[in-house]
Write a structure and sequence with these properties.
With 145 residues, the chain is mainly alpha-helical. The protein has helices at 15-42, 52-72, 77-81, 96-111, 115-118, 129-133, and strands at 84-88, 136-140. The chain has one domain (15-140). 54% of the residues lie in helices and 7% in strands. Strands 1-2 form a two-stranded antiparallel sheet.
Length: 145
């Protein structure tokens, strides 16, 4: 059963806040990549590694990083810092399928010169392409007293 968040009717997050959270999360993702690289190098007698297995492992580790945060609390560490949360349109935590749709959609949004993200600026509800594709949204949480 999906976790339902207590607060609802929160405003959708702005592009600037999303980008700031992404900058924080990028630092963490790079650390995950380094860990994956270390494991591969350790099993390759200290030699550099490349190839489809390594690339696939990096991709999978990146997806798992986001999916674990999104499905459990709805927040990555960068999102916590900027008081953001990803949730379904019904105010619940994402499931694995939605996380995969969101992750792949975000990747596509970035690969087409960021158009999926820039879309937030013209969308009436501040939704990106991957928000719409995954039936999810990033909300701005209120300041804690």
């Amino acid at each position: 059963m999906k976790r339902r968040f207590k607060s609802h009717n929160l405003p959708n997050a702005s592009l600037v806040k999303r980008l700031m959270a992404m900058m924080y999360d990028t630092l963490l993702v790079v650390a995950v990549w380094m860990l994956v690289g270390y494991v591969f190098i350790a099993f390759n007698d200290g030699e550099a590694v490349s190839g489809p297995l390594f690339s696939s492992s990096i991709f999978l580790a990146t997806f798992l990083f986001f999916a674990l945060f999104w499905t459990r609390s709805g927040q990555t560490l960068g999102m916590i810092a900027w008081r953001l949360r990803v949730e379904t349109d019904e105010g619940q935590a994402l499931d694995a399928k939605q996380s995969l749709l969101r992750f792949m959609g975000a990747l596509f949004s970035a690969l087409v010169l960021g158009l999926g993200y820039w879309w937030i600026l013209i969308d009436a509800n501040n939704l990106s392409w991957h928000d719409r594709w995954s039936n999810s949204r990033i909300v701005q949480l209120p300041k804690q007293p």
